[in-house]
Amino acid sequence: MIDFYLPLLFIILALTYQMCFYLFYKYYQIRKENLGLNKFLIAFGLLYGFGFTGIVVRAFNSYFVNDLAFNIILNNASHILISIAAISFLLIISLKDFKSLLNSTIIRIIIIIAFVASILIMLIEDEVLKNLVIFSSILIGVIFMIYFHVILIQNATGNVKVRILILFIGELLVVIGIVFGTEKDPYLFTPEGQLLARNVFTPLIILGQLIIFYAFYDFPVFLEFKWQENLDSFYVIDKKRLKLIYNYNFRTKSSEIVEASSDKNVFFSRGLIGIESIISLITKTKGDKIQRINQEDQIMIFNYGTNGLESLIFCIIVDDDMVSMTFFLKVLQKLFQNRFKLLLNDIEAIEGRENIIFDKFKEEIDNLLIKS
Amino acid sequence: MIVQFPLTGSLAQWLVILESLICLLSLEIALIFMNKVVKNKRNVKRLEEKAYFWVFLGYSTTILFFIISDYYVVDSSLRIICLNLGYMSLAICAFIFIFIIEKYKIFKRKFLFSIIFVIYLIFFAILSLIDISITQILSPIFFAIFITFFIYYSKELNSIFEKNPILGNYNKHLIKLFAGISLLIIGFGLTIDFSINLFGLGSRLIGDLFQLLALFFLYFYFSSIPSFSEYNWQQKIDSIFIIHKSGLLIFERSFKPGDTYYDSATSGALTSLKMMLETVSKKETTSFIEKKGKHITIHPGKYIYGTLISEENLVSLQILLKNFIDKIEQTYGNVLKDWDGDLKVFRPIGQIAKEIFF
Q1: For strand A254-255 and strand B287-291, is the pairing parallel, antiparallel, or unpaired?
Q2: What is the pLDDT of residue B61?
Q3: Strand A243-249 relative to strand B249-254, pairing
Q4: Are the C-beta atoms of residues B218 and B178 closer than 8 Å to each other?
Q5: B74 touching chain A per CB within 8 A
Q6: Nearest to residue A269, comparing CAs of A295, A236, A301?
Q7: Contact B330/A360, CB-based, under 8 Å?
C-alpha cells in the first residue's frame, strides 16, 4: 500500500507556496504607500517559504531516502533552507521600520545565534550533540516568536490584533506538528509510536497552515503603531462653491455641523484657496496643488478629488507626520467618493442639506478606525 | 495487462501525490467561490457562484474517494463501494449545480436537466443495489447529460453576449470552456480501470495532468463569464417606483419605451396596496403579487419602499430592488427621517438607479 505521508508532505508544500505567493502579492499591492511595517509580509513569506520547504525536505529524507550519500546532501540542504528562512526573517525585522517596536540588540544577538547554530549543525558529526543544537535552536526560535507576537499584539489595534492572535495559534500548531510529526526520533517514540505520531501530527501542520492562511487572508494594511492617537480632524471642501461640506473630529469621534459663516468654513474654503493662489504666485507653480502645511504642533495633509470630482479637496489634520496618515487620507477620500459619488455629481440638488446627508459618513469612519 | 489494486510502485507514489494536489486544488477553487458568495451577499452573481462551488466541491470529493479506493483499499468489494461513493458524490453535486442554475434560467422547459439528473440518480441507486460492480458503465451517460447541459448553457450565454456588445466576444470564453471540458473528460477517461488495463499506469499519469490543466481552464471560465442573473432580468423589468412612507412618490422609472404606469393616483394606490398587505401579514416583509404575465414586488425599507413591476418573478430582481432601497436609504437616511416634501433633493436617485439597473 502507498504511504499516505508522502501526499501529505506535498500538500504542505503546495499550501506553503500558495501562502508565499499570496503574502508577496499583498505586499506588492501596497508597496507604493511606503508603509514600512508591511515588510513583515515579506518576512513571513520568506520564513514560511524556505522554512516549510526545509522541513518537508528533512521529513522526506528521514522517511523515504535510504541512500547514505543522498541522505547527507538532503540533510544539509534542509539545514541551509531552514537557516535562510530564520535569518532572512530576522534581517527584515531588524530594519529601521521595526525599530520602535523591537529591541534591535536582542534581534542582533538572535541573528548571531542563528548564524552560529546553522554552521554548527552542518559541521558537528556527533548525532547527540547535533540534536542538542537543533533543539536549542528550536527553543530559542519559539521563545523569540512568542516575544515577537506578544509585542505585535500589544501594539496593534482592531482587526490587526485579532489576526495576529489567530496567526500565533496557527504557528503554534505548526511548530507542535513539525517537532512531533516530521522527525524520525528514536529518543521520543518507539517505531509504532512514531508511525502514529506522524499520522496525527502531520495533519496538524496542515491545519496550522490553514489557520495561518486564514489569518493573512485579506490582512488589513498594517499602519504605524499608535497612529490613531495622532489624528485630529478630517475635512472635505468643495472648491467650486467655496464651501466646507464635511467635517469629522477624531478626538470627539463625531461629525460636526459646519455653519456657512463659521471661521472654520471661511478658512477651509476661501482661506485655503487663497493660500494656494498666493503660493502658486510666489513659487510660479500654477496648476500644482498644496500637498501639506506644517505648523508648529500640527500638520495639514491634502489630497484632491478624482474621477470627475476634481473640485473636491480632502484634508486631514494630524499631530505627528506619519507615512500612515497620507495613506489613511487616501482611504477616506476613496470611501467618501464611492459613497457619495452620485450625489456629488449633482451637488446643486442637495444644496443646503450637505450637513445632514454627509453626516452618515461618520459610520464609515468609525468602522474604518475599528478595523485598522 | 490487468492492473492490480491497490496500485503500488514508484509511479503510483507520484500518482497519488498528483491526485492529492488535484483534490486540494479543486477544493480550494470551491472555497474561493464560496468565499465570494459569503462576501458579496448583495451581488446577484453570487446566485451562480453558489452553483460553481458545488461542482468543484463534488469533483474534489470524487477524487478523494478515487484515491482511497485505488491506493489504500485492499478488499476489492470495498474498493467498488468507495468508487461508487465517488461517482455518487459527483452526480449529487452536479445535480445541485444544475438545479441552482435552472432556478434562474429556463433551458427549453423549467428544471428539464434537473429532472433528467434525478432520473439518472435514481437509476444509479437502483443499479447499485442490483450489482454495484457495473455502475461504472453509467459514467458516459453522466458526461453526456452534463455536456448537453453545457451546450444549452453556452448557447444562452452567447445570446447574452450578442444582446450586450459591451461584454465583448463570447468565443474567447468558449475556448476556455471547451478546453476545460475536453481535458477533463479525456483526463478522466484515461484514469479509469479500462484505460489503465489497456495502456498501463502511464495513461493515469497523463489523465491526471490533463485534469489538473482542466481545473485551471474551468476556473478561469467560471470566474470570467457574466451570470444569467446579472443580465437576464433586463428584458423582464417594466417599471420601478420608490415611495416615501408618507405616501408620496419620490422616484419613478419605466424601463420599456413608451410604457409608463405612472399617473397621480399610482403612488396612492401602491401605498394602499402595501398597507393592505401589511394588515394581512402583520409585519413588514417583501410581498409579491402575480397577475397574468405581470409580477409586482414590494420591498419595504426603513423610510421608503420600492415597487417593481416585471414580467417574471426573478430572485435577481428582488436582490436588485433591495440593493436599490438600501443604497437610497444609506445615502439619504438623514433626509428621509425628517423629509419636508422637497423633491429636488432626490434628483440624483436617477443616477443610483442607472448604476444598479443599467
Answers
A1: unpaired
A2: 96
A3: unpaired
A4: no
A5: yes
A6: A236
A7: yes
Name the residue among B22, B211, B81 with its Cα closest to residue A7.
Answer: B22
The three-class DSSP label of residue A162 is helix
Secondary structure, 3-state, A92-144: HHCCHHHCCCCCHHHHHHHHHHHHHHHHHHHHCCCHHHHHHHHHHHHHHHHHH
Instruction: List the beta bridge partners of residue A313.
Output: A237, A304
Rounded to whole angstroms, how far apart are CA atoms A15 and A206?
Answer: 8
- For A244-254, write each residue's pLDDT tens digit: 888 898 888 88
Which has the closest alpha carbon to A234: A223, A245, A250? A250
- DSSP letter at A31? G
Please return the burial class of A254, using the count of CB atoms within 10 Å of its CB with bins 0-12, 13-18 and 19+.
middle
- Say which residues have a Cβ less than 8 Å from residue A357's Cβ, sequence separation at least 6: A340, A343, A350, B331, B332, B334, B335
Position B281 scores a pLDDT of 55
Domain B233-357 class, CATH top level = alpha beta
Burial class (CB in 10 A: 0-12, 13-18, 19+), B258: exposed
The sign of the CA dihedral A84, A89, A92, A95 is: negative
- The CA distance from A171 to A209, in Å, is 8
Cell numbers describing residue A13: 508544500
Q: Name which of A19-28, B20-29, B176-185, B307-316 the model is least confident about.
A: B307-316
Residue entry with cell 521600520: A97
Bond prior to A7 in cis (omega within 30° of 0): no
Cell of B87: 461517482
Contact call for A343 and B335, based on CB within 8 A: no
Query: Would you list the domain boundaries of chain A?
Result: 2-216, 227-371
Query: In this predicted complex, what is the ipTM?
Result: 0.74
Bigger pLDDT: A111 or B296? Answer: A111
Q: Considering only CB atoms, which chain A residues are within 8 Å of B74?
A: 1
Cα B299 from Cα B282, distance rounded (Å): 15
Q: Which of B13, B332, B352 sits opposite A6 (nearest CB)?
A: B13
Closest CA to B240 of B224, B211, B261: B261
Q: Does A346 touch chain B (CB under 8 A)?
A: yes
Q: What is the CATH number of domain A227-371?
A: 3.30.450.70
Q: What is the pTM of this model?
A: 0.78
